[in-house]
Amino acid sequence: MKDSIDDIKAILALRPKIAVLTGAGISAESGVPTFRGSDGYWKGKSAEDLASMQGFSQDPHGVWEWYNLRRQKLKDIKPNPGHDALVRLEELASSFTLVTQNVDRLHQQAGSGQVLELHGSIWPVRCMDCDYQEDRFQVDLPAEPRCPDCKGWLRPGVVWFGEALPFGIMEKADHAVRMADLFFIIGTSAVVWPAAGLAWTAREAGAKVVEINLEETPATEVAHISLLGKSGEILPQLL
Ligand SMILES: NC(=O)c1ccc[n+]([C@@H]2O[C@H](COP(=O)([O-])OP(=O)(O)OC[C@H]3O[C@@H](n4cnc5c(N)ncnc54)[C@H](O)[C@@H]3O)[C@@H](O)[C@H]2O)c1
Ligand SMILES: [Zn+2]
Predict the structure, then answer these.
(1) Of the four, 12, 50, 96, 136, which is 20 to 30 A from 158 by CA?
(2) By alpha-carbon position, which residue is closest to atom 41 of ligand 1?
(3) Domain spanning 2-32+79-119+165-238, CATH architecture
């Protein structure tokens, strides 16, 4: 591990172009549950059941109960040393793009500049029937959130399973990854596409690929360096 960390430090000394992809794992040490394993179930339903149009259509009350619970918990949660280290990494890079699959906004709370939120954010809401949308950052919502304009159901501003990503965002992420000298893939199980594909793109385009995760993932095969452990402990060691 020490040799690998020294290799990365040597690259950082050259002010590289850096691209980063993060997943739920980087927020785990802040106390945000990931979706895989035993944390991924709520009242017997999986994240895929809850975070989908089909799941919402079948049980909008249940799905909002789940999101409201997550929103309430997130209000008290703070960024951890992993998020903080990425803010400092940005200062060492000649260009820096942070792509996240997380919907918690903890990167922005830590102070990261531009963040490409591939899967949107849990904080904004939008109407399912009209154009109404609003950012409700850290604001409690009613059990049954309705549109003030048309009384239709509001939904959270996240990308649900089976939905398209925000327009143009994958192109921006792809471009940054192709330009990068150094690519980090951190705390993601690398099974949700197209996000996971960025690791393969980075490798093909010639970046040095570094994975940080508690365990190996499908992306480990394209990583030049795999650092096994907690991102909140490993990332600060790079600085
Ligand atoms: N915080 C959030 O915003 C949040 C939380 C859960 C799920 N999600 C959504 O669910 C989907 C889940 O995919 P995913 O790949 O992001 O997460 P995931 O839950 O599938 O996988 C989490 C990964 O993080 C690793 N991990 C856990 N703790 C870690 C730590 N301390 N340090 C380093 N690695 C750690 C695990 O080994 C695992 O590979 C995403 O699309 C995301 O939008 C978001
Ligand atoms: Zn409406």
Answers:
(1) 96
(2) 101
(3) 3-Layer(aba) Sandwich (3.40)
